[in-house]
Amino acid sequence: MKESTVKKITETFPAALVWVTLLAVVILSFARPLWAIYFILIFVIYWIVRLFYMMVWLMISWFKYRRDIKINWLDKIKNLDKDYLDYYHVIEYPTCGEPFEVVERSFDELLKTNYPKDRMIVVLGGEDRKGEQFLDVARKIEQKFGQQFFKLLVTVHKLQSDELPGKGANVHHMELEIQKFIDELKVPYENVIVSSFDIETLPHIQYFSYLTYKYLIHPNPTHASYQPLILYNNNIWESSPIIRVVASATTFWLLTDLSRPEKLLTFSSHSMSFKMLVDVGFHDKTIVTEDSRICLQGFLTYDGKYEVVPMFVTLSMDTVYIGKFWQSIKNQYKQMRRWAWGVEHFPWMWTNFFGQKANRQIPLKKRLQYMWNQTEGMFSWAVAPLLILIVGRLPLYLASDADKTTAFFQNAPRMLENLMVIGMVGLIFNSLMYTIMLPARPKHYSMFNYLIMLVQWVIFPITMIIFGSIPAIEAQTRLMLGGKYKLGFWVTEKKTEK
């Protein structure tokens, strides 16, 4: 079969699976409503069981997080056999038109971390298309912070014909410039740890000490990425309830996966060895979701001998709230659609795991596991909320008079209602944990706002559909249609209060 044909099939498969499932349930609701009800009940029971299973992992991660943030990791690395001062941290900050205040805040917070600043190389990367705006920001940053670190590098990326406009291409260019600087220093690549941060990323005070400890105790540290817990706490109190619920659901998803490394991919801001970056050819400059692709590149390059190490320490980031309600809602949808565009990994994984370019050195079990995680994750993201909350009720309205007289049909609504009540336990649990994880309440917010933080979770089912199923279905459908429908990189608007 031609490579182009295989590519088209694999680009079509995720969306086709979603649409066939949803249409099949609708058709079954008309043709055989009782069968459809049986299917819906089984599906809901499966998801309730899965919910409680995930809550177990959520609690495990929570306890690890609460345990690890209390440890002095700088003291621990000082007592290791390896000298941590032999290692350098490179912190990448790609930008695309963000104002000086946003960049300044990130540098201020970086200075608050407890790791030696003379072992930090900070790289601020701008886009040539932003011209004087970036150069003006860079000059101010150099004036204020230029002497605070071992080195502050400023790079300007000019888009090339073989690149997709976006973060991936910018970061790729930054890493080429970093390589030149590291070569001048003559520091071994394996002694350089790179953290690729979004520009609004604010690290926990112990982030780099914790990361260094994980890196130094790992038996093969260059064959691993390091994924922290992402909190959307920077502007959480200012954000609207809808934005808060969507952002926090992402945190809970990641918190759950941190205790299941076999399902973990890098997401958003993360860290890795510079040697790995060189070996794989740096972050992909031709895609939107370079943050999760990078660990798959490592997995492929090292014949499956690669992992994502969970880090139970936090990075705090902004929600999409910019002070304008409807624009923020629109931005939230675009952000979720961009994340859902991770479906673009599916054809790449198929080609490199099973197709003509397949790396057969990777154990078949591992290839199947990664492929299943990708397929099941994207399918569930798109289908589950719609099926449980909307489509699943369709056969109840379409059943014939004869079907409605059966005991099963008459008990079905009560069974569904009871299952939803059971599911509310997870929702209440999430709301309580979310409230505990909130940053300190600003003085101009009253205690009443804590009640709002709890009550806002009643809209979670609605947000699952509007900011879960719909953008996921759109992203997968766009991949299927291809051409002009494929997504490019969308830069999240940033706003900071001074």
TrEMBL record:
Alphabetical UniProt keywords: Membrane, Transmembrane, Transmembrane helix
Glycoprotein as UniProt keyword: no
Residues annotated as transmembrane: 12-31, 37-60, 378-399, 419-438, 450-473
Name of the molecule in the record: Glycosyltransferase 2-like domain-containing protein
